Amino acid sequence: MKNEATQENEVMYEEGIVLTDAQKKSQRARNIAIGLVLGGLVVLFYGATVVKFGPEILQRAM
Amino acid sequence: MATLENEVLADQGVRISTATPADYFALLKPRVMSLVVFTAVVGLVVAPGDINPFIGFIAILCITVGAGASGALNMWYEADIDKIMKRTANRPIPSGRITKNEALGFGLTLSFMSVLVMGILVNWFSASFLAFTIVYYAVFYTMWLKRATPQNIVIGGAAGAFPPMIGWAAVTGNVSIESFALFAIIFLWTPPHFWALALFKKSDYGAAGIPMMPNVKGERSTQNQIFGYAFLTAAAGVMPWAIGFASTGYGVVSALLGAVFIKYSYDVWMMPSDSETNAPAKKLFGFSILYLFLVFSALLVESIIARVMA
């Protein structure tokens, strides 16, 4: 026969880590920021590649 | 339930961050970064030669991120004294929003990325210069000079003076006497700027155990040195004209600004050492920021006009 405390611990274990609202909110904000930075880097490297290649970027081997 | 869960996690040394992107941005010391961006842009624009505007933008971005990274590394190392000083107690690490290790990882990642991108997309000379500046500020100044000598900001000021040289190097791939003149303006401006601040924040620095000039040598000695450095700053301000790099118009503007800088420093020099309000020091601190902005703006405007006219 399990006591009440043991039962509660098992429920907690099954639920895993439960984030508070503040933690969820800040995590979401950080995710969005990282996404925007990564998107910005994609644009940056794409643009830099075009600039570094110059007009030759349009020449393709047929 | 969630609270109980967090307590259990906290007992196990697990921490779930509530830091926002704004906290990470604050780690970059945005106000210092804005000065770096501006002076680096001036160095890049006034340098002889051409750079593709997009590559120029990347160079400025790398210098900005590199400067921010050294700010984050500075905050990582100084969390203990930041906690003591009123001015810095609410920074992300002392207030508990970001851990020291998170700040260290953030600073190192940005340092590495900024130097790497600068090297690959701009040139390796400016990238090496950027890496040197980050190490100079984060290691040489933060870890050693700042707590070791009242000359901390004199020598450490070089870190804040390098950005226009890096901007210059992004275009030319080297350094020259002209870029050194830009360096000299900021380098010689730094002591009177920071010592004016140290005069009215003396108790803060004293509580944190930082050997700033007023705490070690006293107010009178600091006031004397501020006045002396004001002449050197004013002389450095007109140097771009003196070496034939800027026009007479710039020479006149910088000389006038230098004269005002000396006037404000004179007021600090005449201030009673036991002044409660430190009003002249506060005025000099405020004007010093304006001085640097106007001197570099004059160089920037002149260079843009010259390019448009050419």
Structure explained in plain terms:
The complex is a heterodimer of chains A (62) and B (310). With 62 residues, chain A is mainly α. Chain A has one domain (19-62). In chain A, 73% of the residues lie in helices and 0% in strands. Chain A has 2 helices and no strands. The longest helix of chain A has 33 residues, at 21-53. In chain A, 2% of the residues are buried. By secondary structure, chain B is mostly helical. Chain B folds into 2 domains: 22-174, Orthogonal Bundle (Tetracycline Repressor, domain 2); 176-310, Four Helix Bundle (Hemerythrin (Met), subunit A). Chain B has helices spanning 2-11, 21-27, 30-46, 53-77, 79-84, 100-121, 124-148, 152-161, 163-172, 177-200, 202-208, 213-216, 219-242, 248-270, 279-309. The mean pLDDT of chain B is 91.
Task: Report the helical percentage of chain B.
Answer: over 70%
Class of the largest domain in chain B, according to the CATH hierarchy? Mainly Alpha
Annotated CATH topology of the largest domain in chain B: Tetracycline Repressor, domain 2
End-to-end Cα distance of chain B, whole Å, is 71 Å
Regarding quaternary structure, what we see is heterodimer
Number of helices of chain A: 2
Low-confidence stretches of chain A: none
| Beta-strand percent range of chain B | under 5%
Structural domains of chain A: how many: 1
Mean pLDDT of chain A: 83
Features:
heterodimer; A: 62 residues; mainly alpha; 2 helices; 73% helix; B: 310 residues; Tetracycline Repressor, domain 2; Four Helix Bundle (Hemerythrin (Met), subunit A); 2 domains; 15 helices; flat
Quick take:
The complex is a heterodimer of chains A (62) and B (310). Chain A is mostly helical.
